[in-house]
Design brief:
Mean pLDDT: 83
Strand order of the largest sheet: 3-2-1-4-5
Low-confidence stretches: none
Structural class: alpha/beta
Distance between the termini: 65 Å
Strand content: 5-15%
Number of helices: 9
Number of strands: 5
Helix content: 40-55%
Shape: globular
Length: 229
């Protein structure tokens, strides 16, 4: 008997082949730039306080709970998680440390820019700090104005348009194929720690006017190794 493929079947097959081609021929994205207020949790920490933002295993906070779980899955695949929030650092850190509903922890975050600067500026700074090209970044923010600003100023960055329904975000994030890889290497799983160390170095170095003084403060020592030629 003849094999019949419906137009729907052809469409599904074509999409599948496109995803595979993208994984093979396109360089995968390396970092997820993620907002905090109304993105990692429901509410604005500066206005609502830690007790009134919503994130957890039930009610309105469930969708954000599931979204954070999806972010963790990406992190386990070697994707760098970078916080990009217009906020007060101390307030954001407080949520990560004290809120029982948080799945994402600061140990999962490779770098962060939490301040009142334009997000496009912060992305450029992160790009320099971590030595990553702008086309390595994927930007996720609930605010359409912030998304449009990044699109206009940094067109190399892939800006995601989040679904109107927050409960679909986890699925949308995991189905995004820019991060897709066939195999996860040991280097991928260690990438978060490597970039955390890099950012700590840069932040601490910025507190010293003289680079030599900074290098002395961290007690850098040269190590001689034998070369077998």
């Amino acid at each position: 008997s003849r094999c019949r493929i419906s137009s729907f079947g052809i469409e599904v097959l074509a999409k599948g082949l496109k995803k595979i081609a993208n994984r093979i021929f396109k360089s995968s994205k390396k970092a997820l730039l993620i907002d905090c207020d109304n993105t990692l949790w429901s509410g604005v920490i500066a206005e609502d306080g830690i007790d009134k933002i919503k994130i957890g295993e039930e009610g309105e906070g469930l969708a954000f709970f599931e979204f954070q779980k999806a972010i963790i899955k990406l992190k386990e695949q070697g994707v760098l998680i970078i916080l990009l929030s217009k906020n007060i650092e101390e307030d954001v850190f407080k949520v990560f440390k004290r809120h029982n509903g948080m799945v994402l922890k600061m140990k999962d975050v490779s770098a962060y820019k939490i301040n009142w600067d334009e997000k496009s500026k912060n992305i450029l700074d992160i790009s320099k700090d971590l030595d990553l090209s702008l086309d390595s970044f994927v930007f996720w923010d609930d605010n359409p104005i912030e998304r449009e600003k990044v699109k206009l100023k940094l067109n190399e960055v892939d800006v995601i348009e989040p679904d109107f329904d927050v409960s679909n975000w986890s699925k949308q994030l995991l189905e995004y194929d820019g991060f897709s890889k066939f195999n996860i290497t040991k280097n991928d799983s260690n990438r978060t720690k490597q970039y955390q160390t890099r950012q700590r170095f840069i932040v601490r170095k910025a507190n010293y006017k003289d680079e030599i003084d900074y290098l002395k403060s961290i007690k850098v020592r040269a190590k001689i190794i034998n070369l077998n030629i």
